[in-house]
Amino acid sequence: MWKKNNIFWGWYIVVGAFLVMSVNYGARYCFGIFVKPLSVEHGWSHSVISLAATINMLIYSIGAIFVGRMLDKFAPRWIMTTGAIIAAAGFILTGFVNSPLTLYLAYGLLVGLGATGMGVVICSSSVGKWFIKMRGLAIGIATMGISFGIMTLTPLAGFLGRYFSWRAGMFILGAITLTVGVTVSQLLMRKTHPEAYGLLPDGDKIPLPGQISAAPAVSKISLRIIFKDSRFWTIAISQSLIVMVIMSVFVHQVAYAVDNEINSIAAASSLAAISVTGFIGQFFFGWLSDRLRDAKYAYFLGISFLLCGMILLNYADNVRSLYLYAVIYGFGYGCIAPILPILIVDRFGRHTLGSIYGLLTFFIGFIGSLGPILGGIIYDYFGSYHYLWLINTIILALTSIIILTLKKYNP
Questions:
Q1: Predicted pLDDT at 214
Q2: What three-state secondary structure class fits 6?
């Protein structure tokens, strides 16, 4: 862990990734808090508003292909800095929207594009390049930033929306994104991979087999080879469906709670409750994946917690039951971010992590982006979220089985 009495630089990468993901995901997941206020002020339907979140996800997923490939060649700091500036501009401009089109351009296009440069593809891939033996633990700690950001920013957004306005909330989120994103990326995310600086992964002093080269032996992988690999599609399908469920819940959970006459601040804070146990789950599942023969078993366990939480949400009609759901669902949610890059590295290698992760994120984001708009359409048609939660339950049950079929062998 130490090099010449200094902390191994990989741990600075972990801290930087933690902070960048905190502001990126914490700010974006606040969108669900503003669905009701937007609907009340402008008279827009839930499906019209939710389409902004869907566009956001689509732009994010398309951009992930390019930033993933860029990360395999360049240090992450300029990618992150650019992303922070664009996302901040998007949040601030969202505070001025007065039509669905301007909402889609500001939040959907700009925030989605900026978030790509600060997302899990950049952050987790950057961390994954610096560790082998402690990869699960390092990525688990870094992705705890997602929950930390949601845990801290969603109550703030709920407070601002209730006592000031949803517009003020967007302005504050933009300012936080700009300040933290630019500062952290410039200070901590300057380096690419350890071999380029005469270091070894994990801060080792004695090289393991395959660690001696100063540059990665493989930096590119053919798309044709990836698309012919059943492991790629198993991960893509299962993760896409899970993200679709997660995004539908994050965007519509607060509105669902308010419909059940739960106080708006308590409803918004349920997102923070998810983040508290998600924070624990991200560390736990990262740690657990280092100790199992295959990380897919840790993934299966996490999806099982998500499934139990989803069942409880369908009956959450008061604060107590809402928070019980949030605690269980949140712990399962903690498995998503840390385990995916580990599944990729174990099957395709460390030095192509950015490229494959970015490509996977395109497919995951494309399908996952359907979650918010699907929830809005179901609510507008039935006047209830019951059928959305039922569909989500079935999807989680199926994906828990799909992930167990994932094969593991050397690339």
A1: 43
A2: strand
Task: Using alpha carbons only, give the angle 288, 291, 293 rounded to the nearest 5 degrees.
Answer: 115
What per-residue confidence (pLDDT) applies to 207? 58
Which residue has tokens 């951009």? Answer: 63
Domain membership flag for residue 38:
yes
Q: Measured between alpha carbons, how far is residue 272 from residues 154, 156, 307, 335 in Å?
A: 6, 10, 19, 17
What local confidence, expressed as pLDDT, does residue 104 receive?
95
pLDDT digits (tens, 9 = 90+) for 348-369: 776 666 678 788 888 887 888 7
CA dihedral 301, 304, 309, 311 (to 10 degrees): -170
Q: How far apart are CA 126 and CA 351, in angstroms?
A: 10
CA–CA distance, 234 with 401 (Å, rounded to integer): 11
CATH number for the domain including 375?
Answer: 1.20.1250.20
Residue 210 falls inside a structural domain: no
This prediction has a pTM of 0.74
- Domain that includes residue 372, residue range: 2-205+218-405
In degrees, rounded to 5, the angle at the alpha carbon of residue 354 between the alpha carbons of residues 17 and 145 is 20
> E strand or H helix at 26, and its extent?
helix 9-28
Q: What is the DSSP string of 246-282?
A: HHHHHHHHHHHHHHTT--HHHHHHHHHHHHHHHHHHH
| Paired residues of 7 in beta bridges | 2
What was the pLDDT predicted at 351?
A: 66
User: What are φ and ψ of residue 265, in 5° steps?
Assistant: -70, -40
Positions in the chain whose pLDDT score sits under 50? 1-4, 210-219, 411
* Angle 12-286-177 from CA coordinates, rounded to 5°: 50
Is 61 within a domain? yes
Report pLDDT for 46: 80
* Cα→Cα distances 401→167, 230, 234, 303, 351, Å: 43, 16, 11, 10, 29
138-166 pLDDT, tens digit per residue, is 888 998 888 888 888 888 888 887 778 88
Asked if residue 311 is part of any domain, the answer here is yes
The tally of domains found in the chain comes to 1
Q: What is the pLDDT of residues 327-340, one digit of tens each?
A: 999 999 888 878 88
Please, what's the b/e burial string for 332-348 (b: 16 or more CB within 10 A of its CB; e: otherwise)?
Answer: bbbbbbbbbbbbbbbbb
Distances (CA, A) of 298 to 131, 285, 360, 361: 19, 6, 20, 20
